[in-house]
């Protein structure tokens, strides 16, 4: 309850900020994207994780204001990096289910992109399988977004309940293999089989695939053996401040 009242003020008081976790091409360790991750610097409680305050924002309807701030800030930052000579790579932004279903989502995002002068191919939206439950509705939303040139990735892939049939019909660019499959991949043959199968399926469906939560060299080696080309995780980098990302552009990780 206290947090809820505080959250209402947090944006105006400049307590909300974004960290960015690099996404790396395993072959040459190049940064090929960054995922924006929202944080709240609370005046007395310190840094609060989105796992704590995003649910509050969703329950109270503040998610629209917060989500808009995140989208605008991520796009603005990417444009600033481009202007500073940084690489032409996309920024990924997590969308909550309510945001995904908000009316005129594409027009809203188009407005933000225009405002900050960022081309749509440099914005990637992370959605989850649970948002695909109503195939007709999600298809219509995704087609509008992708017809405008925005990229779509399926976050936490493999943990949802939806059928795989949406993969053949919906305009999706990338699968993000959930980190729960990676954690024990060096010892659990089932996890290894699931990950290998997701990578192979993605290749056959012409989708990009990225593995999340890579923390060790041993995990990385298994992913590379299975031809997973993109990696996100503490092994390469934890989420970084905007300044740290800029340093990493010019003095690679
Ligand atoms: O960064 P951290 O591991 O604390 O993130 C916890 C969760 O919060 C993750 O599931 C992540 O997807 C989610 N998250 C991070 N940033 C955002 C955001 O800007 N919007 C939404 N809806 N979720 C976010
Ligand atoms: O749900 P989503 O995939 O968006 O969650 C992203 C979160 O995962 C980020 O907030 C980030 O802090 C966390 N994360 C990123 N890399 C790793 C990792 O290698 N190990 C663990 N345990 N968490 C990670
Ligand atoms: Mn994510
Ligand atoms: Na994930």
TrEMBL record:
Domain EAL per the UniProt entry, residue ranges: 1-253
Annotated protein name in UniProt: Signaling protein YkoW
